Amino acid sequence: MSSNCTSSAPISASKTKTKKKHFIGQKVKLFRASEPILSVLMWGVNHTVNELSNVPVPVMLMPDDFKAYSKIKVDNHLFNKENLPSRFKFKEYCPMVFRNLRERFCIDDQDYQNSLTRSAPLNSDSQGRFGNRFLSSYDHRFVIKTVSSEDIAEMHNILKKYHQFIVECHGNTLLPQFLGMYRLTVDGVETYMVVTRNVFSHRLTVHRKYDLKVGCHYKLHALFSKEAKELPTFKDNDFLNEGQKLQIGDDNKKYFLEKLKRDVEFLATLKIMDYSLLVGIHDVDRAEQEEMDVEGTGEEDEYENDGMGGGVLTGSFGTPPDSPGNPLNCGGFFGPGEFDPSVDVYAIKSHDSAVKKEVYFMAIIDILTHYDAKKKAAHAAKTVKHGAGAEISTVNPEQYSKRFYEFMSNILS
Amino acid sequence: MASASSIASAIASKTKTKKKHFVAQKVKLFRASDPLLSVLMWGVNHSINELSHVQIPIMLMPDDFKAYSKIKVDNHLFNKENMPSHFKFKEYCPLVFRNLRERFGIDDLDFLNSLTRSAPLNSEAQGRSGARFHTSCDKRYVIKTISSEDVAEMHNILKKYHQFIVECHGNTLLPQFLGMYRLTVDGDETYMIVTRNVFSHRLSVYKKYDLKGSTVAREASDKEKPPPPEDVPPRPKSGNVQQRLQTLRIATRFYCAMKHVRDAKELPTYKDNDFINDGQKIYIDEENKKMFLEKLRKDVEFLAQLKLMDYSLLVGIHDVERAEQEEVESEDNEAEEEGESDGGGIGTPPDSPSNTLDSTKPLSPGEFDPSIDVYAIKCKESAPRKEVYFMAVIDILQHYDAKKKAAHAAKTVKHGAGAEISTVNPEQYSKRFYDFITTILS
């Protein structure tokens, strides 16, 4: 499948469908990682994608698919101990649904599998709102977030409507692209993970990052601001203070706001709130400068491993002449500030007359907080503090979505 | 089959590239008539895939002979069409059997394809104890359902068996053990062992013999009878052919307690008696005979050392003319017996992917690829009929001590404690066996 997804037409459920011929250099995947949980994640994604390759693609999803799961328990004895724990469990939620979502988001299952299994996912500096752990696939295309079991429950609640929304907007949305949901059990400890498409680029570095929310909780956010090591996440307060504007031009702005409107309305109908707009800014000139510095020392920051067993350098140095047609690396040569919009789907270039030459990455994140759950918790807290009958003055999802939308439209020009 | 790009480094590097396999990604549904077969297909598929992520060690370690991999699947509302929702699959000593496959010249991916492209087929063959048989869809491998005692015995002999295979470079008439599994479906455990098919995957066998060379005092009929006490009659001292034939004529097989009724189906298994009475002969030339008997001698010596006995020589005969006739008939009926386009009959479709299973050139009648049909021996030039013989040793898992114990227990019940056991011992069995086979080859 080429990186352009032209239509989402269903594929007939023929029994011996021949999939596209994949020329795979059979590199031994060892699932080697610094931690057993990462090895299990790699093993699990490898396994589940392989399993799915033996299940015919249905014409359409059925209600049962939204309740389904696949579970596997491994118990090895004196075998394969080098990289994997001897005992572990791996559960995938709603495999057919997420396969369908991956298809609608134009992600080929083999590529998805390769991204997550060729090399171990990397720890990400960014921390989630409540200290959730983030990982990124080694090629930076996907983000793996550790979530709670409540998040899993919430995902199940919204999954049908979310899927329907994705069908209707043809995958064209700023909402998180949910690609897989898993539960890993290692040493008796259960960890839940959700895989989404990376908002930022897999290639272009992000120099400044903002997590923008509005609402009465923004003050709380300032209190909770966590400084990550290299890349601090600024909040809306910082954004306003700096007088930042994202100069993307009228067309881009219009297009962006259309999507945003649809998305926040959808979230409001689901009574979801407290989501953020994640904004990343790539400074083209600065990146060029950085690259020249690095070239001087003969190293490259970004490299892709395309299965030839060694690093393949994209961007500056081009691809080796005989590298197999890895769809991940097609059209290898990109100039400064350039990107492949089918891979970096959230990227927007600054318009030509902008002050600075930049590339922006913007999308909505953290959409799993449900109003009722919040209210219940807040109410309980208030009752403890002020006694029963105290009023809750919380913003509701409708209000939240309106405020959110207005704030975002103001920061774009 | 070899792709030149295989990097033959034995050093355990992290990113070792295996030979590039161009595989058209056909969806494998593991569809079968029996959930057990689906689980078998799934399990073999899984096990070979798992092994592809484990580095091939330079040599096997003692732990490898005690190892196993176990997997338990529990699906809910997913993949229900062809697989049961709950099942378990256990593979014994995965690294050992991978090594054995390699030594027997079997590529893991080919092995995988044979067992998973299409469901294994029920085989009419019945084992000694009524064991169930299947063959892979391409007839290269036989899957036998065995008991947990057999699995234990396999574990006991595995190290020495492996060593023997190393020493003879895979050149043996013993069963080629290629994989051993335990499947659990609906709470029932089934043990299975995969071996290379003694017979050809292409050439049909029209007559089959199971020969042990044992002699007992009484004639046994084909019907089941309680096993008579077995005494070794004094062997005729002179080499008088007539006398020997006489002895053999009155000799009967030693039937196991659960000996099956003569198979009324397509290919009955004949025994020693029938072989003699039919006047059956194996016409192979001196060189083949010499090579064969050398292998056999080494093999039975090995078995005697391990105190194994009650094995048989399985003999299959392919009649070339008869097969040609049958093929003409079946072509007329436009029903092809062979499912795989392996170059035998009609040829391969022009754009079929280069399946390494397919030989590159079509084979003429009576011809075979000795790297696949490893047990095949052509008849000698002066044979009355053009035939191909398939001969190998089977059923090697019966240990003398286990037998003795059982027999002793039975005798004690019948005759009281202290009764003597007069059973042939493995050494004697091997000699008798070898001598009998030598005789039939002359």
Automatic annotation (TrEMBL), chain A:
Gene3D superfamilies: 2-Layer Sandwich (3.30.810.10), Phosphatidylinositol Phosphate Kinase II Beta (3.30.800.10). GO terms for cellular component: cytoplasm; plasma membrane. Its EC number is 2.7.1.149. It is an enzyme of class 2 (transferase). It is found in: Cytoplasm. GO terms for biological process: phosphatidylinositol phosphate biosynthetic process. It catalyses: 1,2-dihexadecanoyl-sn-glycero-3-phospho-(1D-myo-inositol-5-phosphate) + ATP = 1,2-dihexadecanoyl-sn-glycero-3-phospho-(1D-myo-inositol-4,5-bisphosphate) + ADP + H(+); a 1,2-diacyl-sn-glycero-3-phospho-(1D-myo-inositol-5-phosphate) + ATP = a 1,2-diacyl-sn-glycero-3-phospho-(1D-myo-inositol-4,5-bisphosphate) + ADP + H(+); 1,2-dihexadecanoyl-sn-glycero-3-phospho-(1D-myo-inositol-5-phosphate) + GTP = 1,2-dihexadecanoyl-sn-glycero-3-phospho-(1D-myo-inositol-4,5-bisphosphate) + GDP + H(+). PROSITE patterns: PIPK. This is 1-phosphatidylinositol-5-phosphate 4-kinase. It comes from Xyrichtys novacula (Pearly razorfish).
TrEMBL record, chain B:
It is found in: Cell membrane; Cytoplasm; Lysosome; Nucleus. It holds the Pfam family PIP5K. It comes from the Eukaryota. GO terms for cellular component: lysosome; nucleus; plasma membrane. Residues 219-234 have a biased composition (Basic and acidic residues). InterPro entries: PInositol-4-P-4/5-kinase_C_sf, PInositol-4-P-4/5-kinase_core, PInositol-4-P-5-kinase_N, PInositol-4/5-P-5/4-kinase. Residues 353-362 have a biased composition (Polar residues). SUPFAM superfamilies: SAICAR synthase-like. Its EC number is 2.7.1.149. PROSITE patterns: PIPK. Residues 326-341 have a biased composition (Acidic residues). One of its GO terms (molecular function) is 1-phosphatidylinositol-5-phosphate 4-kinase activity. It catalyses: 1,2-dihexadecanoyl-sn-glycero-3-phospho-(1D-myo-inositol-5-phosphate) + ATP = 1,2-dihexadecanoyl-sn-glycero-3-phospho-(1D-myo-inositol-4,5-bisphosphate) + ADP + H(+); 1,2-dihexadecanoyl-sn-glycero-3-phospho-(1D-myo-inositol-5-phosphate) + GTP = 1,2-dihexadecanoyl-sn-glycero-3-phospho-(1D-myo-inositol-4,5-bisphosphate) + GDP + H(+); a 1,2-diacyl-sn-glycero-3-phospho-(1D-myo-inositol-5-phosphate) + ATP = a 1,2-diacyl-sn-glycero-3-phospho-(1D-myo-inositol-4,5-bisphosphate) + ADP + H(+). Keywords: ATP-binding, Cell membrane, Cytoplasm, Kinase, Lipid metabolism, Lysosome, Membrane, Nucleotide-binding, Nucleus, Transferase. Residues 32-441 form the PIPK domain. GO terms for biological process: phosphatidylinositol phosphate biosynthetic process. Its main location: membrane. It is an enzyme of class 2 (transferase). The keyword Repeat does not apply. Residues 216-242, 323-366 are annotated as: Disordered. This is Phosphatidylinositol 5-phosphate 4-kinase type-2 alpha.
